[in-house]
Design a protein that fits this description.
The chain is an alpha+beta fold and 201 residues long. It folds into 2 domains: 1-71; 74-197, no CATH class. Helices cover 62% and strands 14% of the residues.
């Protein structure tokens, strides 16, 4: 009787160990799954935080641009095609104030004139590229044009930034000074347009 009880006790003890091992293995798998889900959630949280920070930075930048536009109403920032379209649509929709050709300079049309003239500016860049070793080391050149237009549509002055080559800057200014914009009433308007000039392949 005691032998049987002894064997039974050992059998029970062995069974308890097996159950503990199985439970332990299941517990480890559950922990691994939980850890993976936690890491995935953490990665999503980090991505969301990054996107939120970028959105806040974009919002702050737009606020600054709005403040500059309000402080300098005669200066048009023509760097974003969507904004150009929105301004043109807003001017059409408002119904009050002069329309294109009768009042302030239409930013969409002004930008189109600059883009149509861009190939001539590319010619200035290509000529400078042949002579200037510093330009040859670059993959391209981003320039910001500041074009002041008089109400009669003639170009009053041109600013090129950065001015990395004197001859190229002189050529760009001379080329733009011949451009003709639509006439409008009021004061002279400064158009800012960014262009990227790249070597022809």
């Amino acid at each position: 009787m005691r032998k049987c009880l002894g064997i039974g006790s050992r059998g029970l003890s062995l069974g308890s160990v097996l159950v503990a091992v199985v439970v332990g293995a299941c517990s480890n798998k559950a922990d691994d799954g939980m850890t993976a889900r936690l890491l995935e959630a953490n990665n999503k949280n980090v991505t969301c935080q990054k996107e939120l920070a970028e959105a806040k930075a974009a919002r702050d930048n737009l606020k600054r641009e709005l403040a500059v536009a309000v402080a300098n109403p005669t200066k048009l920032q023509l760097t974003d095609p969507e904004i150009i379209e929105l301004i043109a649509d807003a001017r059409k929709a408002r119904g009050a104030g002069p329309e294109f050709g009768q009042g302030d300079l239409n930013p969409k049309e002004a930008s189109a004139i600059v883009m149509r003239g861009a190939p001539a500016l590319q010619g200035c860049y290509e000529r400078a590229l042949k002579k200037n070793a510093g330009l040859q080391m670059r993959a391209g050149l981003g320039v910001t044009l500041g074009i002041t237009v008089k109400p009669v549509g003639a170009v009053d002055s041109v600013d090129v930034s950065p001015s990395v080559d004197a001859e190229m800057t002189k050529c760009i200014k001379a080329t733009i000074s011949r451009w003709k914009f639509p006439t409008f009433t009021g004061h002279a308007v400064t158009i800012e347009q960014k262009l990227t000039l790249t070597p022809k392949t």
